[in-house]
Specification:
By secondary structure, the chain is mostly helical. The protein is built from 14 helices and no strands.
């Protein structure tokens, strides 16, 4: 009993230390954003001597709101498309029997190993021929599907109880009705998990916007933060850069907290039904 308590204590200590190590950059960014330019230049202490929100006021007076809205619009569209297409593809690969299904799945698994940098130039050429360069639609269309999450949803549906769908079939439900009215509501934990990671991925995406978008008004948040960092790189204005970084993190935190709570509630309900 004592050994188990000691082991648990050591585990909690290691996890706490890791948590502090993970939170340290975020805490440093928040504290730096509350400093003045003079405190940044002096660099006497990590703690702000006279906390101020001047950095947030300055950063929000620029085109930051437009960049924030652009990123939110693109991330929302990409998340919705991914959740729909990845889930439908995963369900088809798990449930439907058709010629070439195994070859298709193996091809998708091979494509996962292809670095995204390899496909950037071909993607740009396709987007250019479609006349979508310097538009948000270029980022949305090239990010609408993710093979990794198709695989995740396939594995989820393989373990999904077939008896529920068979009972719905006996009641006269067609494939589309079963998928949208029965399967999807019961797959909410997997959908929430997929939505969180897809949203975070496209929200933090930098290479695609840098390749496709050139107008300042069309910048996504990552491009905007990069422009702000370049603008103030030669000065001691790290408080402005950190203020923009802190604001950019807030939507991700809000979405994660909201979907994480829903994820836990759904798991509790499903375990209760079982």
């Amino acid at each position: 009993m004592r050994r188990r308590s000691y082991a648990n204590g050591a585990l909690y200590l290691v996890l706490s230390a890791y948590s502090l190590l993970t939170l340290a950059p975020f805490i440093w960014a928040v504290l730096t954003s509350l400093k003045s330019a003079r405190e940044i230049a002096d660099a006497d202490s990590i703690w702000p001597q006279a906390p101020t929100l001047a950095a947030y006021e300055t950063i929000l007076h620029g085109p930051f709101y437009q960049w924030l809205w652009n990123s939110f619009m693109v991330a929302t569209a990409v998340t919705l498309l991914n959740v729909l297409f990845n889930t439908m593809a995963g369900y088809a690969l798990a449930r439907f029997r058709f010629r070439g299904r195994g070859l298709l799945f193996q091809t998708l698994m091979l494509l996962v190993m292809v670095p995204s940098q390899v496909t950037m130039i071909p993607a740009y050429m396709i987007v250019a021929r479609m006349g979508l360069v310097d538009t948000h639609l270029s980022v949305i269309l090239t990010s609408a599907v993710s093979i990794a999450y198709i695989f995740m949803m396939r594995q989820f549906f393989i373990n999904f109880p077939v008896e529920i769908e068979e009972a719905a079939t006996l009641d006269g439900s067609g494939p589309l009705h079963r998928f949208f009215r029965i399967v999807l509501p019961m797959a909410k934990p997997a959908l929430a998990t997929q939505a969180i990671f897809v949203f975070m991925g496209i929200w933090n995406e930098f290479m695609k916007p840098l390749l496709f978008i050139s107008s300042v008004d069309n910048y996504l948040l990552t491009q905007g933060l990069n422009a702000v960092a370049k603008q103030y790189a030669k000065s001691s204005s790290w408080h402005l850069i950190m203020a923009g970084s802190v604001i950019s993190i807030l939507p991700i935190l809000i979405m994660y907290v909201a979907l994480n709570r829903r994820f836990l509630n759904i798991n509790d309900q499903s375990s209760g039904i079982k």
